[in-house]
TrEMBL record:
Belongs to the insect chemoreceptor superfamily. Heteromeric odorant receptor channel (TC 1.A.69) family. This is Odorant receptor. It comes from Grapholita molesta (Oriental fruit moth). Signal peptide: none annotated. GO terms for biological process: signal transduction. It is found in: Cell membrane; Membrane.
Length: 394
């Protein structure tokens, strides 16, 4: 953790904010501590037990004759809980890869005194804008989760304890427990709050792991933009300085490309887990909203939109990072390389050749983080949703 705190506060700010949210699931990425590591596995066991309880609840409702639309909300919740459990495992296993990636990126970070005035403004815009929207998303997520989970238990407690009226003890999502809790208001409230807390923390892990990936891609994109400016400026130097600077920038460019590979290794499996659960989860939320136009279905539609937004932003930042690397060739070609020595021209040619090949953050050998992948996923999801609703309508 000491290495991380030595970096510029602007570099730390966004990471600290996101990592603090992930810590709610006992995942301490920047801190090495045996007992905290044990707590993360305890948290995983709790999440798996909760996911199993909700899964048995879906099975029981099917046994009671519920159709696909009636179980769609409960099934979506069960899928999200299993998704959160798999993401916990993945983050725990890749914790060192993520930590090393952040530290290596921090070592390449450029402070304001190392930049030209116009690049200082660009740097501040990249960092502060992302941090601002991260905080807005955090507040919006908290508000949404509260509106989704709190009203039901508040309504039940008020009706039963204050108004002394008969009311069924119903949880936000149907689940099966090894004991009865629907005949005791205090036990019901305890179970409801415990389940809501688990869902609340899973909401963090399902969204803020992608935000952590987005932050890394945004920062790495900024480093590529700064490199573009350095390459252009190096061609304005005298011949000797140009050759020396270009050779250093070639190595720096190679290091940034390697950071893209490392970023894919650290987060590729995480993104794949999101893709695996994305279509099914948003389809079931969409079905509930499509068939039943009610306040409950509107909440489900909002949940689907949150998931959609997280996947989109991840693909968007991945595409921007790829484009920033591709633009290096254009930026250096716009410089006055034709006035330089033969050695300088060779250096320029090497950088152009390296930059002309698109480098993507790879999730697997057949999928990468880009807007093209997002489009494919949307097409698949829409086809799946259309098929299920057509079958149901028929």
């Amino acid at each position: 953790m000491t290495e991380f705190t030595n970096f510029e506060p602007m570099f730390q700010e966004t990471y600290k904010f996101i990592l603090d949210r992930i810590k709610s699931n006992q995942i301490y990425i920047m801190d090495d501590n045996f007992w905290w590591g044990c707590l993360s596995w305890v948290k995983l066991v709790v999440n798996i037990l909760a996911a199993t309880s909700h899964t048995f609840g879906v099975v029981e409702r099917i046994g009671q004759g519920a159709d696909l639309v009636q179980i769609s909300t409960d099934l979506s919740a069960a899928l999200v809980m299993w998704q959160g459990s798999f993401l916990l495992i993945q983050l725990r296993l890749n914790r060192k890869l993520i930590k090393n990636l952040i530290l290596r990126m921090g070592s390449k970070w450029r402070t304001d005194d190392q930049l030209r005035p116009h690049m200082i403004a660009v740097k501040h815009e990249y960092v502060t804008t992302f941090f601002k929207w991260t905080k807005v998303f955090f507040r919006s997520l908290n508000f949404y989760v509260f509106l989704y989970l709190a009203p039901r238990v508040i309504y039940t407690v008020v009706k039963h304890l204050i108004l002394k009226e008969s009311v069924p003890f119903v949880t936000a999502f149907y689940m099966v427990m090894p004991f009865r809790f629907d005949d005791n208001i205090f036990l019901y409230t305890l179970v409801y709050l415990a389940d809501s807390l688990i869902l609340y923390h899973i909401g963090y892990i399902v969204t803020f792991d992608l935000l952590l990936m987005n932050a890394a891609m945004n920062y790495l994109r900024l480093l590529f933009v700064i490199l573009q400016d350095d390459l252009q400026h190096s061609l304005d130097e005298d011949v000797d300085n140009s050759e020396e600077k270009l050779k250093k920038l070639i190595q720096h460019h190679q290091n940034l490309v390697q950071l893209m590979v490392d970023l894919g290794n650290a987060f590729g499996a995480t993104f794949l887990i999101h893709l695996a659960f994305f279509s099914a989860t948003i389809c079931f939320f969409g079905i509930a909203a499509r068939i039943h136009c009610s306040p409950e279905s509107i909440k489900n539609l909002c949940a689907g939109l949150i998931i959609l937004f997280c996947i989109y932003t991840c693909c968007y930042y991945g595409q921007n990072l790829t484009d920033a690397n591709l633009h290096i060739a254009q930026k250096i070609y716009e410089g006055k390389w034709y006035l330089k020595s033969q050695e300088c021209k060779k250096c320029v040619l090497i950088i152009i050749i390296r930059s002309q090949k698109a480098q993507y953050i790879k999730s697997t050998s057949f999928a990468h983080v880009s807007l093209e992948t997002f489009t494919k996923i949307l097409n698949t999801t829409w086809s799946f949703l259309s098929l299920i609703t057509s079958v149901y309508d028929a």
